[in-house]
């Protein structure tokens, strides 16, 4: 009996050790960013395309460049709150280095080595180029600092165990693009799948919160519990590429309706991008294949 007990204890210890190894945070190699210099002007474009202000500005504030956070994001796993990412050295990211931002947006790992929740769309941002991350860091450090502390997430057991997110990453973390596209669609793919992280809202998720890539952009329930996020696939969205590009610029649909909800923030971002970028996004959207399974997505916003 003692021998069996010892074997069981040894197996348990080995199991825990393997689990800790498998769920350990991964980090970006520091030498990738050692020689990169960020450009503030270029970083502003990355910031806009990536929608940073849309989530991290203070809810209801007129100045959307004060990134003190606080916006709530309800989900089946709890309510997440956007943190302070202003250059304040205590409450924000003022004491970060560019490698810290790279680990955050590309690996979902904090400077202290903790996993971030995937409510932060690092599973899209991980496709960004190193130069874009360096430029984004330069721009973020140029913005106003704010000392408002980040609001803690309202997440209960077992989802409040950060280490378990390492297991989630083993299942769903990927820096591969979903769609294979020709060269003329690569810019649109980069904007949609990486910077603008469109799939985070427009693609349905499985029971563990991972994106169901077999139904890419096929619409999804609204995390707030009110309605659905519309499908962008050709079986649902019948707009032309010109209609899509104009919507991203103006917020007006071909049916003379206007944008609403959180999508208004997205349109505000895209309206500040170039016409070429909006056209690139529209071309990618029109190249989407029809989903393999039927969805309840709608084409009206």
UniProtKB/TrEMBL annotation:
Keywords: Heme, Iron, Metal-binding. It holds the Pfam family Cytochrom_C. The keyword Membrane does not apply. InterPro entries: Cyt_c-like_dom, Cyt_c-like_dom_sf, Cytochrome_c-type_DH. It comes from the Bacteria. One of its GO terms (molecular function) is heme binding. Residues 38-144, 183-289 form the Cytochrome c domain. PANTHER family: ALCOHOL DEHYDROGENASE CYTOCHROME C SUBUNIT, BLL4482 PROTEIN-RELATED. This is Fructose dehydrogenase cytochrome subunit.
């Amino acid at each position: 009996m003692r021998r069996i007990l010892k074997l069981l204890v040894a197996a348990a210890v080995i199991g825990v050790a393997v689990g800790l190894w498998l769920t350990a945070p991964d980090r970006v190699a520091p030498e990738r960013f050692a020689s990169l210099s960020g450009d503030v002007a270029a970083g502003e474009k990355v910031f806009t395309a990536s929608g940073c202000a849309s989530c991290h500005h203070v809810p209801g504030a007129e100045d959307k460049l004060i990134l003190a956070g606080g916006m709530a994001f309800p989900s089946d796993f709890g309510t997440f709150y956007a943190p302070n990412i202003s250059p304040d050295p205590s409450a924000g990211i003022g004491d970060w280095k560019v490698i810290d931002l790279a680990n955050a947006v590309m690996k979902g790992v904090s400077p202290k080595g903790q996993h971030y929740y995937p409510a932060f769309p690092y599973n899209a941002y991980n496709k960004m180029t190193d130069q874009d991350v360096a430029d984004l860091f330069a721009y973020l450090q140029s913005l106003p600092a704010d000392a408002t502390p980040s609001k803690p997430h309202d997440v209960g057991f077992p989802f409040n165990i950060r280490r378990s997110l390492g297991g989630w990453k083993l299942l769903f973390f990927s820096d591969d693009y979903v769609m294979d596209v020709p060269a003329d669609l690569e810019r649109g793919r980069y904007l949609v799948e990486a910077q603008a992280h469109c799939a985070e809202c427009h693609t349905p998720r499985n029971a563990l919160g991972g994106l169901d890539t077999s139904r890419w952009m096929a619409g999804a329930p609204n995390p707030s519990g009110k309605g659905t996020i519309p499908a962008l696939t050709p079986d649902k969205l019948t707009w032309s590429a010109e209609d899509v590009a104009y919507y991203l610029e103006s917020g007006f649909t071909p049916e003379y309706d206007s944008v609403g909800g959180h999508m208004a923030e997205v349109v505000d971002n895209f309206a500040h991008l170039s016409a070429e970028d909006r056209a690139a996004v529209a071309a990618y959207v029109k190249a989407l294949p029809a989903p393999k399974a039927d969805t309840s997505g709608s084409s009206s916003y």
